[in-house]
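Justification of computing resources. Each target in the renewal requires a structure prediction run like the one illustrated here; the chain below, 89 residues long, is used simply to show the kind of job we budget for.
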Amino acid sequence: MDYHYPLDDSWSTQEVIDVVHFFSCVEKAYEQNVNREELLAAYQKFKQVVPGKSEEKTYFREFERASGYASFPVVKEARNSETKTIKMS
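Resulting structure tokens:
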């Protein structure tokens, strides 16, 4: 990993941990596989930190620019899937 997660200086330590964990789950979905329930729980915590849709899109865009991994398709797959793990191709 040669990039940085998009973070806000005003976030608390726990909020930073929650956001980093969510983006880490997105990475795992592309690089190996991620537990669907863990991903959805991480997304819920992410949404507590970043509740606004436009803010969410901004952070997703920044993360995709830095990492090459698109967050929205991962979340959509987790929501629509019944499988235990999510693996993006």
